[in-house]
Amino acid sequence: MSSTRFDGRAGDDLRPISITRGFQSTSAGSVLYRSGKTTLLVSAQISDQVPPFLVGKNQGWLTAEYSMLPGSTPSRKDRRPDGRGTEIQRLIGRSLRAAVDLNALGALAPCTIHVDADVLEADGGTRTAAISAAFVAVVDALSARFGEASKSVFRDAVAAISVGVVAGVPLLDLNYREDSKAEVDFNVVRLSGGGLVEVQGTGEGGVFSRSQLDQLLDLAEVGLDRIFHLQREQLGHLWPVA
User: Fold this and answer.
1) CA gap 105, 171 in Å, rounded
2) Where are the domains of the chain?
3) Which class in CATH covers the domain with range 17-236?
């Protein structure tokens, strides 16, 4: 695809991504994740308790919280939770539970994985970055707790990316400037083996065709394959997927 973007990227280019593991010494798993200007701190901690509905069932659980810090946007973001944040943290939890075998986790120890995603700077794609970062943090947290046995907990790896149509052009990994003008906007969550976990999409400026949908999903696949490669590169021998 030819370059059509103000930052010089081609339509099928990701923003530069950096993954810094172990950013917090207080968390078993933590990642400082940067995608362009979008920056998140994602931690994963394990508690020896499960929700009441799982007590006695020898099953584990995973839950997520998401927040945007007050200084993450040009105008101060209120700390109080809102509907958008609640929807995003549910998406993060669903996405990670698709990659984690909760029965296998419970067989190791009935426990809960708590994922916390805090946005330090928002420039579009915070929910997708949170999912991609959280997978790495969860791998580290489980490895610290259970060692080699932690690999049995994972069905697959999971990552997410945004795609959209801006001025009639399909683009990968939208930043805020692009997202705010998009006619079509999608978030795609996928397992590394190819199974789609969730596709959130809307025609912001009207309708979109089936062929556009297919084109955007194909574009998302390109970006997701690159993110899985980065995750695997970062985790090295801890990569839990056969």
Assistant:
1) 38
2) 17-236
3) alpha beta
- Three-state SS string over the chain comes to CCECCCCCCECCCCCCEEEEECCCCCCCEEEEEEECCEEEEEEEEEECCCCHHHCCCCCCEEEEEEEECHHHCCCCCCCCCCHHHHHHHHHHHHHHHHHECHHHHHHHCCCEEEEEEEEEECCCCHHHHHHHHHHHHHHHHHHHHHHHHHHHHECCCEEEEEEEEECCEEEECCCHHHHCCCCEEEEEEEECCCCEEEEEEECCCCCCCHHHHHHHHHHHHHHHHHHHHHHHHHHHHHCCCC
The Cα–Cα gap between 182 and 168 comes to 9
Give the tens place of pLDDT for each residue, 65-96.
999 999 999 999 888 878 989 999 999 999 99
With a pLDDT cut of 90, the percent of the chain lying above it is 88
Q: What is the mean pLDDT of residues 234-240?
A: 97
Quote the pLDDT of residue 1: 44
* Cα gap 131→115, rounded to integer Å: 10
Q: Is the pLDDT of residue 207 over 90?
A: no
* CA–CA separation, 92 and 130 (whole Å): 7
**Which amino acid is present at 139?**
V
Read off the tokens for 9: 């990227």
Q: Give Dmax (Cα) for the chain.
A: 57
- 146 pLDDT band, cuts 50/70/90, is very high
